[in-house]
């Protein structure tokens, strides 16, 4: 998985942080059992039927999607708490950029920071969340995955923060 894809995944979850409950309802509706499915199940009692298997698979997929959404919300919530207490500038940036959906110009005005500083804040925030997401298996990595960061410049700074946040669990 390339860095740009990881950035996109993290930002998507930041943008939808407050709408997670609505997304979970939509997932349940997407996988809801129709009357036809129930009738098929009743008729298939004692028989081998693919309809029952399909319903079971749908239920498993639904539970996995919901679990994933909840885990992302919990992860981002913990990081927001940390930023709120220890790094209020990053917390404010997340609030303005991802929750209030402010433009870079508006953020520049409200926070009195230039666009280069905004880019640095965004990078720090997204990679910090991505590191925790990898740790919690929310972003999978393996043989066919490329998740590269310059750990000489960025990783050491995050290592201290990771230790602090995991100790607060």
Describe this structure in words.
The chain is mainly alpha-helical and 169 residues long. The chain has one domain. The chain is built from 8 helices and no strands. Helix 1 (3-15) crosses helix 7, helix 2 runs antiparallel to helix 4 (50-86) and helix 4 (50-86) packs across helix 5. The chain is elongated, with a radius of gyration of 21 Å.
Structure characteristics:
169 residues; mainly alpha; single chain; elongated
In short:
The protein has 8 helices and no strands.
> What Rg do the Cα atoms give?
21 Å
Tally of helical segments: 8
Subunit arrangement of the protein? single chain
Strand proportion:
under 5%
Helix content: over 70%
Total number of strands: 0
Largest sheet, in brief, is: none
Which of globular, elongated, flat, extended, rod-shaped describes the shape? elongated
């Amino acid at each position: 998985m390339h860095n740009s894809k990881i950035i996109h995944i993290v930002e998507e979850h930041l943008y939808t942080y407050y709408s997670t409950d609505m997304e979970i309802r939509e997932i349940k509706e997407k996988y809801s059992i129709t009357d036809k499915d129930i009738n098929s199940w009743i008729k298939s009692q004692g028989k081998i039927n693919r309809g029952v298997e399909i319903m079971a698979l749908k239920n498993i997929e639904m539970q996995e999607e919901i679990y994933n959404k909840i885990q992302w919300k919990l992860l981002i919530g913990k990081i927001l708490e940390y930023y709120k207490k220890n790094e209020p500038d990053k917390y404010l940036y997340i609030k303005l950029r991802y929750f209030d959906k402010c433009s870079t110009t508006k953020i520049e005005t409200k926070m009195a920071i230039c666009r280069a500083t905004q880019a640095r804040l965004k990078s720090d925030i997204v990679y910090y969340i991505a590191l925790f997401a990898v740790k919690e298996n929310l972003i999978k990595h393996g043989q066919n995955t490329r998740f590269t960061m310059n750990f000489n410049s960025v990783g050491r700074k995050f290592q201290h923060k990771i230790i602090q946040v995991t100790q607060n669990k």
